[in-house]
Amino acid sequence: MIKKQLILILIISLIFGNAVKSQDEVMKDTISVKKFSLSEAQNYALENNTSIKNKQIDIEISKKKVWETTAIGLPQFNVKGSWQYQFTVPSLEMATLIPVPITQTPDPYDHYHELQYSAIELGSKQSTSIDFTFTQLVFSGEYLVGLQASRVFKSLSEKSLEKSIIETKEQIAQTYYLVLVLKRNAEILDSSYINMEKIRLDMEQMYKQGFIEETDFSQISLTTLNIKNGLISINRQKNVAMNLLKLQMGLPFESEIELTDKLEDFLNESEFVAISLQEFSIDKNIDFQLLTVQEDLTRLSMQREKSKLLPSIAAFYRHQEQINAPEFNFMAPDILGVQIDFPIFSSGMRRAKIQEAKLELEKVQNSKLQAQDALNIEFEKTKNDFLAAQDKYLNQKENYRLSKSIYEKTLIKYKNGVSSSLDLSQVQNQYFSAQSGYFQSIVELLNIKAKLEKILNL
Question: Does residue 306 have a pLDDT over 90?
Fold first, then answer.
């Protein structure tokens, strides 16, 4: 009796332990799998993508550069100390008249004078000095232009980050769409493969019993094998696309992710119509904005060359303390002054630099006008491609629906012995071709949609 109870307890313990282990594995899998919608995947990429991180660092660098330039025009205070030792100190001999009284003369106030020589050192063997200098830039045209340029440079870094964000979101969207399309294609192929495998097994039994010819069985086996190979290929493509998505998001390849959005969520025809009706504003386009900032920088570069013709003025105050100073020390401890630097003549060098800057500005302005026309043309082309992709998608959708209906009816006929295996193979090839065209049209439509959103900066 005790032995039976021990065995029962052991069995219950094993069952309970396995249940707990299974539950822990499920919890572990649930925690390790990360789920992302398209917007969540894009937001995650904006926080973890290496390119985005570098652009954010560039903005911080530009902010430091602005302060670095600003600090040039702010008060500067420097302290300099020095110690020196002289092995030989120069000296100067000085003669001094010394009165000597003569007591023998009637006039006791009459004196002789003797010369006494003594050496006076013109320095000290070792000395220590501390120099305090305070400077303030009063006026500099080049500084004022440089300050404006540093701020425009910061704006350029911000626009570069904005462009990287837009491009990253576009890349994430395109890869996300591709994964969903491949996933749906794999599901349909898997369902077709399961059905065909059942038919092949039934045909195998019928062939062994002599009810059908070997040619019919071979045809079905070949069709089944082709579907299997297509399924393997699609799954490999899906894995590659998933790894690409992880790379773009900044996730390690070993991470397990699940896409929560459905393919149908992005095939909203009303949304397509709304996007196609959007008006193109060149000022909202990030590439045009970058060209505008580049134009501002080039204009400031020209102004900088012009500012070099103006004088620069700086004020300073210096105080020096010297320890062990020599007896003859002609250095003033406090000095206040103003320094003016006025360019007079440079043999035409500055004028040439100004002309070069003007020509560079003209080049940038010409490029900006050309880019403006190119962006307008690109928008019109992308919009037309988007409308054409919509038409193609609707046509391929109808072709897929009709070919699927024909395939399903032919499959029923084949099971009932009305249709041959060759007929089923031909209809099936037609069906898979329509299916491939349908999913390809979806990829093209969604990719062009993402490109159009990028141009419109939506």
Answer: no
Query: Can you give the CATH number for the domain in which 292 is found?
Result: 1.20.1600.10
Token reading at 370: 């050309």
74 pLDDT tier (thresholds 50, 70, 90)? confident
pLDDT in tens, 221-266: 888 898 899 899 999 999 999 999 999 998 888 889 999 999 988 9
Distance CA 355, CA 346 (A): 15
Single-letter amino acid code for the residue at 268: N
Answer whether residue 437 is part of any domain: yes
Contact 123, 87 (CB under 8 A): no
Which residue shows structure tokens 């060359």?
305
SS3 163: helix
Identity of the residue numbered 454: K
What's the distance, CA 78 to chain centroid?
Answer: 39
Contact (Cβ atoms closer than 8 angstroms) between residue 284 and residue 269: no
Q: CA–CA separation, 201 vs 225, rounded Å?
A: 13
**Average predicted confidence (pLDDT) for the chain:** 82
Q: Which residues contact 51 (CB under 8 A, 6 or more apart)?
A: 164, 168
Share above pLDDT 90 across residues of the chain, in percent, rounded to a whole number: 32
- Cα–Cα distance, 325 to 124 (Å, whole number): 7
CB 154 within 8 A of CB 66: yes
Cα–Cα distance, 120 to 329 (Å, whole number)? 12
- 330 falls within a domain: no
Residue 310 DSSP class: S
The one-character DSSP state at 309 is T
How far is it, in rounded angstroms, from Cα 137 to Cα 341?
12
Position 413: which residue type? K
Domain of residue 211, residue span: 34-74+139-311+346-456
- The phi and psi torsions of 254 (rounded to 5 degrees) equal -80, -5
Total number of domains constituting the chain: 1
Element (H, E) at 11: helix 2-32
C-alpha to C-alpha distance for 416 and 202, rounded to whole angstroms:
12
- What integer pLDDT is reported at residue 328 of this predicted model? 61
Residue 403, Cα to own-chain centre: how many angstroms?
A: 45
pTM, two decimals, is 0.75
The reply to whether 126 falls in a domain is no
HSE (side-chain half, CA atoms, 13 Å) at 176: 28
The Cα-based distances of 174 to 180, 230, 248, 275 in angstroms read 10, 23, 11, 17
Strands (E), 26-181: 33-36, 76-85, 91-101, 111-121, 126-139
232 occurs within a structural domain: yes
Tell the burial category of 196 from Cβ atoms under 10 Å away from its Cβ (0-12, 13-18, 19+). buried
